[in-house]
Specification:
Helix content is 45%, strand content 13%. It has a seven-stranded mixed sheet, sandwiched between helices. The protein is α/β, with parallel strands linked by helices and 397 residues long. Helix 4 runs parallel beside helix 13.
Length: 397
Amino acid sequence: MSTTTDDRLAPILDELKLDLISKNHVVENASKRKEIARTFILPTAEMYAYATLATLGDDVYYEPSTAALEAHVAKITGKEAGLFVSSGTLSNQLALRSHLLQPPYSVLLDNRAHINKYEAGGTAFHSGAQTIAIEPANRHHLTLEEIKNNIIISSDVHFAPTEVVALENTLNGTIMPQDEILRISEYVHSIGVKFHLDGARIWHVAVETGTPLKELCEPFDSVSVCFSKGLGAPVGSCLVGTKDLITKARRFRKLFGGGMRQTGVLAACAAYSLSHNLPQLVRVHALTKRLEAGLEEIGVKILSRAETCMIFYDPSSVGVTYEEIAQRGSAHPEPLILGGSRLVVHIQTSEEAVEDFLSIVRQLAQEKKDAGFVPTDDAAAGAFKDVYVRRAANTPK
């Protein structure tokens, strides 16, 4: 290359440069890792250090660390094969698209399910499937009777036959009884319908009930598990099922634009989370129950009890609003980022953060009481809410 060409390229190359690494990042990351005890879960320095030892390879072709993770997750769930993907939403949608062949068809699920409410209508968009969303009468989990009463197995041309029944465990932090899952599995398989599990937080079920993961997953034709939500990996879920299903899902992953390249570092983070973070869920569940007990002591209405890592609550029983709690939390010397009816405890939630939250609610409740608020037993106040507030990062408080 001539000097003239070099001179001409220099300003172009300079314009394209980007240095994301700053000396301040060390301090900023240390501060951010302190904040996680009071906000959201983040990867640890130890996890990142482990990830740097992962293999190099292109996952669209073959990446050794990723392939090892997929094989391991398939083994521990009792399935033939696995597929590492970027998110739980992609994993669920790939499962449905791979099970469903030729429309018209329908997918039957709980009306509160992530697939139904928080995947941007993906079931209709990707698979052209109608969803049949059922509200459980017991407000906890679907029953076999409800499945039978709503599933479409008719040859009537007016209806879209049900080809997949999808469950979620945990759902809003609650554990679905395994005996009910087995009853549903036996029925849906007897009529030739596929059975999928959104098991993003299935790890919590295994830890809380002492049930092997393989046993929890055995009734299902496909299962999606997540490494980021409860286990602290930066990215990733895994879809498991038969070899044929995963081969088909891998093709759809590419079609959806979900093929990834150097995934070894992400797979290593997921592996680290299974070995080092999963055992911490025992403490998470205990801390969640402690949080629930503290709220009840104050007089706050519990909408959904702490079976694993989540609580849904309604502070109106003591005259307090979610907005007041959020404002007081953000103004705390060590801020708490709060909003809505859902409280989630994770592996990096500190006991101090829980105590600070309870202190905020306790103080607000006392202020309301001093101002003349009288708690009532009105059933309407504290009726079950399955919806929680999701506030975008740039939404004004």
